[in-house]
């Protein structure tokens, strides 16, 4: 299967898309559990998921807690000289503290999310980016509050009953995060690369008994540290348009508008931000007509005073995963 040349709609059929959605609900769900809920055989689930993962279509990774990482994160809009956008996007994507990188339509802007400390942030913004000579302007927004992020988005190919059946039981989270030792950190690091590794594989990788790994993962899950993200090109789910909406909202309505947008099925991220706009909503739509209707029918009644729409031409990195590029791309 070659995603770079195939028609996206022909690559994932209806069952494939439902399997992706099952992993959006629980990225570590076992094939037998998925099979029971979706009404197919466990062998079919195993074969199809294996095919998608082997082809690079699908990858499931661990996401950090949204409040721990999103608040204070930087949203960068980097304007670049013509012909240099790929080099800047690649340089940002190579950084471990940059989990999301997009090239925007027009080829003169790169969008990125940066999770880093103040020293690395300053070196990037005031030293490394200007030193390239390719950057003409950088706009930086700080995330002040996260209403929803990519780990909470669902593509919508499951019924409510199916999603509820796949969801893990809610566990009361401790008031304070548990202290992490070297084994905890090693497990979380491995799951950040591939969240579907079995207990046996994880045990072998970290050099601990499988029973210990099971107990540790149960504790980490109870602390909310095992959120997962099923990384897939949205075009393969029938969503051809990926847009960022930079919104101006009256300050007294930011919480209301952010909460409403976070519940919308087209929205895969909503953040209150500093900078020229005070709210960012990221949306997936089947086509430009649907995006237009979202702007008019959804944003209009919410009292948004201004909306700047930027469309992603190419996703380079999502949730820490580098995405494959079409032939000819560096």
From TrEMBL:
Keywords: DNA-binding, Transcription, Transcription regulation
Domain HTH asnC-type: 180-240
GO CC entries: cytosol
Entry keyword annotation includes tRNA-binding: no
Organism domain of life: Bacteria
Molecular function GO terms recorded: sequence-specific DNA binding
Tagged with keyword Transcription regulation: yes
PROSITE patterns the record matches: HTH_ASNC_2
Matches recorded under InterPro entries: AsnC-type_HTH_dom (IPR000485), Dimeric_a/b-barrel (IPR011008), Tscrpt_reg_AsnC-like (IPR019888), Tscrpt_reg_AsnC/Lrp_C (IPR019887), WH-like_DNA-bd_sf (IPR036388), WH_DNA-bd_sf (IPR036390)
GO-annotated biological processes: response to amino acid
Protein name as it appears in the record: Lrp/AsnC family transcriptional regulator
Organism: Kitasatospora xanthocidica
